[in-house]
Amino acid sequence: MARINDNYLKLQAGYLFPEISRRISEFTQANPEASVIRLGIGDVTKPLVPAVLKAFHEGVDEMSSGATFHGYGPEQGYDWLSQIIIDKAYKPLGVDLKTSEMFISDGSKCDSSNILDIFDLSNKVAIGDPVYPVYNDTNVMVGRSGQMNDAGYYEGLVYMPCTEENGFNPDFPTEKVDLIYLCFPNNPTGTVATREQLKGWVDYAIGNDAVILFDAAYEAFITDPDIPHSIYEIEGARRCAIEFRSFSKTAGFTGVRCGLTIVPEELLGTTIEGEKYSFNKLWNRRQCTKFNGVSYPVQKAAAAVYSDEGWTQVQEIIDYYMENARVIREGLSAAGIECFGGINAPYIWLKTPEGMTSWDFFDKLLNDCFIVGTPGSGFGPSGEGYFRLSAFGERKNVETAVLRIKEKWGK
Amino acid sequence: MARINDNYLKLQAGYLFPEISRRISEFTQANPEASVIRLGIGDVTKPLVPAVLKAFHEGVDEMSSGATFHGYGPEQGYDWLSQIIIDKAYKPLGVDLKTSEMFISDGSKCDSSNILDIFDLSNKVAIGDPVYPVYNDTNVMVGRSGQMNDAGYYEGLVYMPCTEENGFNPDFPTEKVDLIYLCFPNNPTGTVATREQLKGWVDYAIGNDAVILFDAAYEAFITDPDIPHSIYEIEGARRCAIEFRSFSKTAGFTGVRCGLTIVPEELLGTTIEGEKYSFNKLWNRRQCTKFNGVSYPVQKAAAAVYSDEGWTQVQEIIDYYMENARVIREGLSAAGIECFGGINAPYIWLKTPEGMTSWDFFDKLLNDCFIVGTPGSGFGPSGEGYFRLSAFGERKNVETAVLRIKEKWGK
User: Fold this and answer.
1) Contacting B residues, span 33-92, partner chain A, CB-CB under 8 Å
2) Contact B271 A43 (CB under 8 A)
3) How many contacts (CB atoms, under 8 Å) link A and B?
4) Nearest C-alpha neighbor of B235 from the set B264, B268, B272
5) Closest CA to A260 of A273, A250, A269
6) 3-state class of B370 per DSSP?
7) Residue B132 CA to chain centroid, in angstroms?
8) Do A2 and B47 lie within an 8 Å CB cutoff?
9) I need a labelling partner for A30 at 20 to 30 A (CA). Which of A115, A357, B119, B186 fits?
């Protein structure tokens, strides 16, 4: 009798974004003439930059002749791509990595989900609240939790509230944990962590023999030179942290699909016999067995992001999005709506006006202003009363959206 | 204390193909002048066909303008791609599918691994012996087995020997199982299943409330019109089978990465409370949470495989590879080496001459003939004494390889 994985039935309702899509689709069918502005799901709007397009085409061209055709590539990604990323994205931070510590993938969502494969189910997991739902849901799906309780938390997982009181920077867990998910710049709150704060986490992880799963998908949006881009800028992190990076927001790869995971050689876990074992070896085995590498032309395109030309072009788009963030942040603040984030991060985390719930605000914003955002409560109970707007839209739309919100709620 | 997934330590040595790569690399470093012919890993050699290249480029071009840019796509793949595959690859077989039953992915290796996510650990699993190592290893990694015993089998998994005696077509398991992996045309033996044989499996699965995981990665190589391409050609299969397909061998996508999984709506599993639940819903949840869709230009390229032009071009290459298979099969047979497969399948499964072990033959073939193949024992204990050659090489190389083998072993 084929038994299903019953853990899936613990998950409440749909994954956040499909639910949002459903409501938008319902609205647009009822109001086909409404010009809906989407600042919700966090998808980018700007096309790929010319240097990336050129390399992408060249990669496709190479597939046209037997002499330059690429079949199965390394499951870990091509060394030349890893080396470029190390040279251009990590060395300038003072971080030295080997290519054998970098695993190219088809995106950070997959990696930050699949990473659980190499950890024993007995590990206690701490996640933020609010949090990127993937961290929460994948732990539920693998069976690390009980049911969701009335407060909206899954029994067995440790939640670290990120609130206005702690500046949306979580305190250390009050109970012993083995795995800690951190995301800076944060999705959804737009918060960043200072060097001292990250140092605190690294020391905490080493002191507690825990592993940090560090999601740096938004590091490219950091403009403050004092804010670390990588956890490996912190002494000791090679012994306690796995880092995820993505080309999705950095270079408009949401539909192209490329990301990477760093698993340092010094990072060791414990076997059931109490011996130490390399997580790098485990992740390598996982990828070799369950993954077959990233599309060759995509890897060529990804490498071009770090060419001089490509990086300049990509940086212009990042600046454009960050100007959007400023427009939203300042516009909403002027309308009397309290905003967080949007500096060093492409997300604005706003406090819903008039004490509305997140979903009420979602519906009101959609129905009255034709604007789509993401309800804070979709990211966890502490997100209730908050709302996420993304800076990835077209400037014109962003400005229109701000005007509509000002008209509706401005004093 | 971060605990590793100890199940990984049960895995013996490396995954088969990395071990082969290691030996090749050792040999070529010691013998840089040797012209090594690779008929091992099963990678294709022919470039992408013109129709696919054109669509791939067009897909990249669309990413160059805001108006045609594609960001996040559906996690399940674009409907237009699923619809084309249904219309062109399934309807002619008399198989009707909904697009909601098809999930486009970055390859069959990922899907046939990740599918285990939606099944409870308590399910008893049956796999062939020999078998594509991914089925075996992923079950070990997830904790469904004990240690490997002296015979080379992992305790707790059910192995179905595929031997000369049963025509490499396994008998039904002798104990009750819940999940059955079948691969036809088979990797590694090149065996196909007749309609009657598949009907037997479907009836068996329904009778035993089991689910068949049907790997049809090589269906495009079937030339005999009486051999089914899809398990859904068999009455009842929609209630008991998941099917995997791949563009890798069909259209030279080993480095491009695209595959698909079919989970019919009628396929139900059992919850811990004994209720029925849809595997389609579970797989959809799995993909929405842990996967972010396939690269847009890759999906455009995949759709072009099924254009009239694309299909004609792809078929020419398939014919070319199948002619290679004939050259190998007949050449080796003439040299007195017993061969199986190579008809309706791109793999030739040969009996090692002089009763050599599979790895001894591997080393001899590499050292004396500069030919790389795959040791049968790498696919399971019943593969000992056998050896897999793939038909995906260049004709010239294939002919040279056959000559070298004839010189070495021909009477």
Assistant:
1) 41, 43-48, 50, 53, 56-57, 60-61, 63-66, 69-73
2) no
3) 265
4) B264
5) A250
6) coil
7) 7
8) no
9) A357
B-chain residues near A11 (CB < 8 A): 285
CB-CB neighbors (< 8 A) of A17 in chain B: 288
- Taking the CA of residue B129 and the nearest CA in chain A, the distance in Å comes to 18
pLDDT of residue A13: 67
Inter-residue contact A1 to B209 (CB < 8 Å): yes
Find, among B299, B279, B253, the residue nearest to B79 by Cα: B299
**A 241-270: CB under 8 A from B:** 252, 254-257, 269-270
Q: Which residue has the tokens 């793949």?
A: B77
**Residue B350: beta bridge partners?**
B339, B387
Which residue has tokens 């077509």? Answer: B169
Nearest to A209 among B2, B15, B60 (CB): B2
- pLDDT over 70 at B381, yes or no: yes
pLDDT in tens, B59-107: 999 999 999 999 999 999 999 999 999 999 999 999 999 999 999 999 9
Domains of chain B are 12-47+309-409 (3.90.1150.10), 52-307 (3.40.640.10)
B chain contacts of residue A41, beta-carbon cutoff 8 Å: 72
**CB proximity under 8 Å: A 303-362 to B:** none
Rounded to whole angstroms, how far apart are CA atoms A306 and A312?
Answer: 9
**Nearest C-alpha in A relative to B270:** A3
Closest-CA residue to A188 (of A357, A376, A372): A376
Percent of chain A with pLDDT over 90: 95
The shortest CB-CB distance from A289 to any of B137, B255, B394 is to B137
For A209, how many CA atoms within 13 A lie in the half-sphere containing its CB? 12
The ipTM assigned to this model is 0.96
- Where b means 16+ CB within 10 Å and e means fewer, A194-230 reads eeebbbbbbebbbebebbbbbbbbbbbbbeeeebbbb
CB contact B206 to A (< 8 Å): no
The tens digit of pLDDT for each residue in A190-214 reads: 999 999 999 999 999 999 999 999 9
- DSSP H/E element including A404: helix A395-409
